[in-house]
Amino acid sequence: MQGDVNVTNDYDVVIGKHGSPFLLKENGDPYAFNPMFAPAVYASRNHVIHDAFSRMFYEYVPTLGLWRVVTADSMRCNISDLLFDLGNHFKKPNIANKERSDAKLSGALNNLRAITDSRFDDRPSGFVHCTNGMLDVRTGKLQSFDPKFKSRNATPFQWDAGASCPRFLEDLMLPSLCPEDVEAIQLYAGMTLMGRNLAQKILLLTGTPGGGKSQLCNVIEGLIGRSNCTELRTTQLAERFELARFVGKTLLTGKDVPGNFLMTKGAHVLKALSGGDALETEVKGRMGSNTLEGEFCVIITSNSRLRVRLDGDNGAWRRRLLIINYNRPKTDRVIPDFGRHLLNIEGAGILRWAVEGARKLLEYDYQYPVTQAQQGRVDSLLDESDALRSFLGTKIQTSSCDNLATSEIVGAFFSFCDQKNWASCSVREVERQLPDAMMELHRASKSNSIERGCGSVKGFRGVRLIDEI
């Protein structure tokens, strides 16, 4: 339980700050411990932080260089043991035993929270926690473990400046991707190692089934440590307790997700989870709420054509998304669990490769470089996700002398989608969205008296199709 504080001197330090160990009667006899004394002694003997965001206790493990969660029950037990020791030291065991009741220990725990209250968001950036030390990404120098790094997440690999990963690059990456996309992934892998999504990017790996997307995701998960990852479930993101699953994690992954994965009602929460926002979380069975920092790296893989539920926030999604498309033919050589195999034989080399990506990203000051082709994929996805407005904005224009029947607009819209090879929604859904979209883009209100043939149909006045679809 004891840390690196000299126990023979810590009583004097605590007394100097919090006063006498005991509360005294009028005649000077002690009758109870000073309620701050045991918590202060515990804090002086151990590196303890009560995280103001997650409202959890952490203690530092010097051999690992990690801050690890300690449950409130465990902490209460530790303080009870300390009170027993204090009672023996001061030869007041009866007083100590009275302080070990549930009510007294709860009070001591609250005082320990007040003494050790801190935050992990002020931890230094630009370091990677390896098994053999803290790597300064900027200098490439390995430093000794230290509580000041406030590290809660570590890679399971050691730093080796001479390691390489030829099979990872030649067998998994280069056969499927162009050099610019390989570099983009390298930057993202480096950012996940540093544990904070300061570039505010969501990585989508899409395209060829069996092309290596899931194996790459497995490699990155294994590289940063699977205990630091958790499954992303967009269908649950709007539920009360879902965000609490992310406490202590740094990477959220959705593997082989369906095409509607980003169309669910909770998908919008991803923008906050990756964009630096503070989110309130609830833990099942616990009173009150906690705060979660939205600095998670996010990797999603899919064989389907993804679409996004935009809700009018195209700009935020455009800034967030980074799409790497696997469009080369699937390799004939398939190795089961190839990602795990690569980590076993080249883990240190893959770590070095990712650290180089982290170094580049720091040089860019987290301003993620995006090529024209990469941005084009994002724009195409957003256009397809908002296909009706894309069509109405590019293929319909105002014209005071013209009009269009709803059926004509719907038919032209589906032809437009077919030409672009876009997935489209149902006729009923198009007709439902059409009045608001026409008013928004062309100030055209719905009419029930558009003349066609011998009768009238529903449609819109003052608009026409541009050329032929």
Structure characterization notes:
Residues 1-8 have low confidence and may be disordered. The chain is of the alpha/beta class and 469 residues long. The protein is built from 15 helices and 19 strands. Strand 1 (22-24) and strand 2 (30-33) form a beta hairpin. The strands form 6 sheets. A 5-stranded parallel sheet has the order 11-12-15-10-16. It folds into 3 domains: 7-118, no CATH class; 127-376, Rossmann fold (3-Layer(aba) Sandwich); 386-465, Winged helix-like DNA-binding domain superfamily/Winged helix DNA-binding domain (Arc Repressor Mutant, subunit A, Orthogonal Bundle), CATH 1.10.10.
Question: What keywords describe this structure?
Answer:
disordered N terminus; elongated; 5-stranded parallel sheet; 3 domains; 4-stranded mixed sheet; single chain; Rossmann fold; 15 helices; alpha/beta; Arc Repressor Mutant, subunit A; 469 residues
